[in-house]
Amino acid sequence: DSIYPLSFIDKYESFADIGTGAGYPGLILAIAQRDVKSYLIEPRIKRVSFLNFVKASLKLDNLTVLCNRVEEVKDLQVDLITSRAVTNTSLLLDITTNIKKDNSSYLFYKGSMLDEELEVAKVNDYKIVNRKDRNYLYIKGK
Who is most buried in 43, 46, 115, 136, counting CB within 10 A? Predict the structure, then answer.
């Protein structure tokens, strides 16, 4: 589920996973692509401790774990912003503007409410890929 989108999204050099929790999808993407600079952004200390333990255990030199809310992250801009089960699409787009480059893309792992979320978010130039019970929303950067 976490790495499936690698089959249809463009290549990227860096990404940030918002509200990564136990590491889905961000930790799995960092493991699968050790040449990509990876950031996991998670505000809860207990989860950050777990993620740092996994990072050290697997020697993931490409991974940085940030204990913070994405709105408060400074001095970080990435090519791809990912999120799974954090909040609605419109709010995700709003709270991630500080880590977005002009040409950043988004990959959101969404459920059944995606159509309603897209109406509110007024997103253009996107692709939806359905697989089993998962909707992958890919908003390609320009």
Answer: 136
Residue 69 vs residues 30, 52, 114, 120, 125: alpha-carbon distances, Å:
20, 17, 23, 23, 27
Residue 57: partners with Cβ closer than 8 Å, 6 or more residues away: none
Give the Cβ contact number of residue 37 at 10 Å: 17
Q: Which run of H or E residues covers position 45?
A: helix 45-58
Task: Say if pTM beats, i.e. exceeds, 0.90.
Answer: yes
Position 111 scores a pLDDT of 78
| Type of residue at 40 | L
Which residues, 6+ apart, have CB-to-CB distance to 69 below 8 Å?
A: 41, 43
Task: Check: CB of residue 126 under 8 Å from CB of residue 140.
Answer: yes
| Residue 86 predicted with pLDDT over 80 | no
Pairing label, strands 63-67, 100-110: unpaired
